[in-house]
Amino acid sequence: MNIQVIAIGKTDSKALALLISEYAKRLGHYVNFEMLWLPDIKNTKALSEKNQKLQESQLILKKVKPSDHLILFDEKGKTYSSVDFSEHLQKRMNSGLKQLIFVIGGPYGFDESLYQRAQEKISLSKMTFSHQMVRLLVVEQIYRAFTILRNEPYHHR
Amino acid sequence: MNIQVIAIGKTDSKALALLISEYAKRLGHYVNFEMLWLPDIKNTKALSEKNQKLQESQLILKKVKPSDHLILFDEKGKTYSSVDFSEHLQKRMNSGLKQLIFVIGGPYGFDESLYQRAQEKISLSKMTFSHQMVRLLVVEQIYRAFTILRNEPYHHR
């Protein structure tokens, strides 16, 4: 199974981009992993929040194949412990999926079209973190999941 | 009111340390803010998890004054949305506290002595993140809280 993380816009902070790519590299030892940073929507200042969300979601949907399993990170999503998340990931891998895509929204979240397409929603926290920082949390959590499944010492139970 | 964040050990990743100090600097515009990275416990490989937790907690307790209000980040803590957290912080500031201390545990959490001393426990997420990454989440969240209280555009409601 391939795992892809999709987000809109490049990661502004070099330090953050570096940390994210470190985890992505480590993840590559366990699974076919790819991060897809889609280009920013232009002229967002001239757009309503609703319109920005719509354009971002359309951009993301163009990258999704019919067979892909889509998981959105969303504040209204299901919460998991890291161990539960790793078991959930294992189940998805066992189900014969070709590709699992995790999607990180922009500052205003997702358009309804993306909610309709997605199979699952996961919430990282009741708290809001910067959507750029969420990228780091997501790759770290997927990496952690694999170390849990492999019984490696990264995660302390 | 002063706000202090205490954690054990320096932040290993330079990129992470840079991000943390950026938020700490921004926070300094709103409040007397200080981060206290206590030295690592030596020879942890020779210690049981329980002993490491004990020594770490003793080190932290030495830094705490009787009048300090202590909040631990702990997986069994209360969860807040960012807006609720900002209101909670406001209440603490209104109560005439001299110093509020947030404590981030090591990889194994806290010793019972620290649980006894602390007034509150807050959980960032059901998921576990690296305890070094938690430092970034904590400073970002305190920063976010102040931008919410000041009605500044950093947080999108």
**Oligomeric composition of the shown chains:** homodimer
CATH classification class of chain A: Alpha Beta
Count of distinct strands of chain A: 5
How would you sum up the major sheet of chain A?
5 strands, parallel
Tell me the helix content of chain A: 40-55%
- Report the largest inter-chain contact: A-B, 28 and 28 residues
Total of DSSP H or I helical runs spanning 4+ residues of chain A: 5
| Number of domain units of chain A | 1
Beta-strand content of chain A: 15-25%
For the biggest β-sheet of chain A, the strand order reads 2-1-4-3-5
What is the CATH architecture term of chain A? 3-Layer(aba) Sandwich
Radius of gyration computed on alpha carbons of chain A: 15 Å
The gross shape of chain A turns out to be globular
What does this structure look like?
The structure is a homodimer of 157-residue chains. With 157 residues, chain A is an alpha/beta fold. The first copy, chain A, has a single domain, classed as 3-Layer(aba) Sandwich (Alpha/beta knot), CATH 3.40.1280.10. Helix content of chain A is 41%, strand content 21%. Chain A contains 5 helices and 5 strands; from the N terminus they run E-H-E-H-E-H-E-H-E-H. The first copy, chain A, has helices at residues 14-27, 49-61, 82-94, 112-117, 131-149; strands at 2-8, 32-38, 69-78, 99-104, 120-122. A 5-stranded parallel sheet of chain A has the order 2-1-4-3-5, with helices on both faces. In chain A, strand 3 (69-78), helix 3 and strand 4 form a beta-alpha-beta unit. The longest helix of chain A has 19 residues, at 131-149. Chain A is globular, with a radius of gyration of 15 Å. Chain A starts with a strand and ends in an 8-residue tail after the last helix. Chain A binds chain B through residues 13-16, 18-19, 79-82, 85, 107-108, 124-130, 133, 136-137, 140-141, 144, 155-156, and chain B through 13-16, 18-19, 79-82, 85, 107-108, 124-130, 133, 136-137, 140-141, 144, 155-156.
